[in-house]
Amino acid sequence: MSLVQLDKKYRTSKGLVHHYTRFYERYFRAYRGTNVKLLEIGLGCGMSWGVGVSAAMWREYFGPKATIHFLEYDKTCGEKWMLERGQKLNVTMHYGSQDDVPFLKAFAGKHTKMFDVIIDDGGHRMTHQINSLTVLFPTIVRSGGVYAIEDIYTSYRSNYGGQYLNSSTLIEFLKRLLDDMQSSSPTHKKSMLGSLIDTFEISDKICFLRKK
């Protein structure tokens, strides 16, 4: 089954609501049936479409060789789901907040260059998205790996800390990374993060960064 079909089977928000699976199919099909290592931030605790539904979708899509990890801030929810479903799917859980930079750095230190795919479907607040990208992309994504950030429209939603043209939003942060990738001006000081990006795609409500 295609990822679009599997999304309909498991009824995740990735396809039915946001239509991200059409992009994921293109980025992830080469990993299907391999020993790909994936980390998704956000298990879906408290969401109406259900906890861990994307885990079941990823397991069926990538197959038994895949290593699937989740990072979730709600430990009570995560542990309950692991007992009910996660262990059968052979998923590894980690608990911590995207607001906790020391935690993210400690996590990154334990998983250096481990993951082929990271999907940020966590809290979607500006600090969550920027902290995770800044800490995790340079450290734990392998060369050629893909880092996806879902729901980037929250940069324009005040309840997520967003605002149009506010310099602290993810969108403005991504614009600065584009400057790092494209500028040849001797006065432009490029960030370390920008120097690691091979390709960068922004699509409808989602972006993808591939590591050099």
UniProtKB/TrEMBL annotation:
The lineage of its organism: Eukaryota, Metazoa, Spiralia, Gnathifera, Rotifera. InterPro entries: SAM-dependent_MTases_sf (IPR029063). This is Uncharacterized protein.
